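How a chain folds remains the central question behind the approach discussed here. No coordinates are needed to read the tokens, only the vocabulary itself. For completeness, the protein is quoted in full, as a sequence line and a line of structure tokens:
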Amino acid sequence: MIKGRIKIVVPGDDPPQIQNSPHLERLKDYGDLTLYTDRPKDRGEKIARVAGTEIIMNTRSAVTWGNEEFAQLPELKMITTCSIGTDNFDLAAAKKHRIVISNQPGKTAPVVAEHIFGMMFAVAKRVAFFTADMKQGRWTQMDNVMLRGKKLGIIGTGAIGAEMVRLGRAIGMKVLAWTYNPSAKRARVMGVTFKALDEVLAEADVISIHVKLTEDSHHLIGAKQFSKMKENTIFLNGARAAVVDTDALVKALHSGKLMGAGIDVYDEEPAPADHPLFACDHVVLTPHSADSTPEGMDLLNSGAVDNVIAYLKGNPRNRVC
């Protein structure tokens, strides 16, 4: 717990997330807030922005923190995310420097799941392809996919994956799932059948990815895994880009192995104009915006402020280290 007024910094709120949030008003009783509306150009500027800071509110995952930064920030005590993911932090380094990292597990699960669920429909009905085709004066006839009765394979059954299970069952899909720690009790509660990863890949008509990014899950889905999928599988990535080998995904799309894909995350963000996915016909792409609704932003912004206040009151919550 920090006594007295403290320094709080938002080091790079770009694209805008928290800068106009009314929840920031609640911090005035605790400390002085400095908010930067652009991203730091380099590591030096990033460190300069937070020099002498006790608390960082990290609103964008593109702004990363590791041992080199922590070693130059002796006053830093706590960082809260405005997100669920923590892959932009070196957690081992944070622990070594005794820096508390708090995230927001499951906070926007319904918002993100709804987005990915909508992408599934858009791919199944070839919405992006037909729209682009008709704008070019063409009237192409191709079969769509009826999702009711199809098998939905969920990879990762945390808060977002669990919500995808519920939504899939609601429209009459049969749901299979793989998770790192399956249990019979959780299967009953969720109404899902847990299977081995290869079985889910081979049996599902739709594959939706929802694991967190760790060393174990990096490139969890690559060329080998795509080869095990059915012909015309629909593929959705609602996790982090690095969970999937992008080159293997692009090859699977161009080969016709996949019917299409719905992607919200990219290895480089913003995605460059020559990103290989842009050359794929049957894709639905969004700019890492699955939780970008007024409701989603408000939930994350309020949660970040709640994390700061809880820490300052001596009861840190949602700690990942």
About this structure: The chain has two domains: 6-107+294-312, 109-285. The first helix runs from residue 43 to 49. The chain is about 30% helix and 15% strand.
